[in-house]
Amino acid sequence: MKESRKEAERWWNQAQNDLGYAELGLSGGYYAQACFQCHQVSEKALKAVHYAQFDKRFVAGHSLVSLSRDLDFPESLKNNLPILDQYYIPTRYPNGLPDSAPYEVYTAEQAQHAVEVAREVLEAARRRIGL
């Protein structure tokens, strides 16, 4: 098995595991954490595709919009990635939001949507990788 394929599988498997953690956060009322974790799920899934399709040795960056740019994903899915990109920093740090903390701001609806998008990204990545 090519090393890049093996690396793609490692990243996809971790993304799948992280989705379980995001779902626990959603069900437990940890909405900011679930939103951030969904960003991580999507980032890892997109990086898995880069490893598999482009035979990369290293994939840098955290922007889902940038990571998806060269990938053949549905536009409807790509249109949701900027939303998840907004969950990368402000979901984790109190100084990322004016006069509040992440746990006070993020909602069940946002976390539910983030989980749905992360599931879609993970499934699209699975198909592209051929798992």
Primary descriptors:
single chain, 131 residues, mainly alpha, 69% helix, 0% strand, elongated
Task: Provide a descriptive summary of the structure in words.
The protein has 131 residues and is mostly helical. The chain has 7 helices and no strands. The chain has helices spanning 3-28, 31-54, 64-68, 75-78, 81-85, 102-105, 108-129. Helix 1 (3-28) runs antiparallel to helix 2, helix 1 (3-28) runs antiparallel to helix 7 and helix 2 (31-54) runs parallel beside helix 7. It is elongated and about 50 Å long. The two termini are 14 Å apart. 39% of the residues are buried. The model has no long low-confidence stretch (mean pLDDT 95).
- Give the H and E element order: HHHHHHH
- CA-to-CA gap between the ends? 14 Å
Low-confidence stretches: none
**Biggest beta sheet summary:** none
Structural class: mainly alpha
**What gyration radius follows from the Cα positions, in whole Å?**
15 Å
Note the beta-strand portion.
under 5%
Shape: elongated
Put simply, the count of helices is: 7
